[in-house]
Specification:
CD2/SLAM_rcpt; 2 domains; six-stranded mixed sheet; glycoprotein; transmembrane; 2 helices; Immunoglobulin-like; single chain; three-stranded antiparallel sheet
Length: 200
């Protein structure tokens, strides 16, 4: 009688331990079941480019996602939405922002004022939050450099055209000189022949 009882107790302890571990894991995930991954925390862009502020979140239940932009010009709310529900985009970003199910947003046609810090907050149903930050640097295309390249190209094209004209003139002059030399040679040969004929 003792052995089966000990066997039952042994199995009961194992089952109880596994159940306790699963319950503890579930209990830990339920209130604080919000996680957020930011794969690219720094983004470099040029003016008029489209950029993707990429994140991945996981949450038990419905989550609320909110994006804000902080720069030297101040703090601006960009967009807020609930998974599977409404999307509330700020009027400043109305035609420039697309929100995605995974929490990411795309910002179109960026300008210098779009540089700064982008904060994303994911809030679970139980009030737990996960935070992420992306730093965006926006650079202008330096038109002075392009202007210099264009001027240099035009200068080289002009020099090439002048050299081609100069070579053409030299070739033409050489051809005329050869023609005159040939004409003189022919004239002197004719004179010699005439002299010989007269002498004869």
């Amino acid at each position: 009688l003792m052995r089966p009882l000990q066997g039952c107790r042994g199995r009961g302890v194992v089952v109880g331990t596994v159940t306790l571990c699963l319950a503890a894991g579930w209990a830990l995930q339920t209130p604080g079941g919000v996680s957020l991954l930011v794969p690219q925390p720094n983004i470099n862009a040029t003016v008029a480019q489209n950029i993707l502020l990429s994140v991945e979140y996981s949450c038990r239940g419905v989550a609320t996602i909110e994006w804000k932009h902080v720069s030297s010009w101040g703090t601006t709310s960009i967009v807020e939405w609930r998974s599977g529900n409404y999307v509330n985009i700020s009027t400043v970003y109305k035609d420039r922002v697309t929100a995605f199910e995974n929490g990411s947003i795309q910002l179109r046609n960026v300008g210098i004022r779009d540089a700064g810090y982008y904060f994303v907050t994911v809030t679970g149903e139980h009030g737990t939050n996960a935070y992420g930050t992306i730093i965006v640097n926006v650079y202008e295309i330096i038109y002075e450099d392009l202007h210099f390249v264009a001027v240099l190209f035009a200068f080289l094209a002009a020099v090439s055209a002048i050299l081609i004209c100069f070579m053409w003139l030299c070739n033409k002059s050489l051809h005329l000189f050869q023609k005159k030399a040939t004409h003189k040679l022919t004239a002197s040969t004719t004179e010699e022949i005439e002299l010989e004929t007269i002498e004869c």
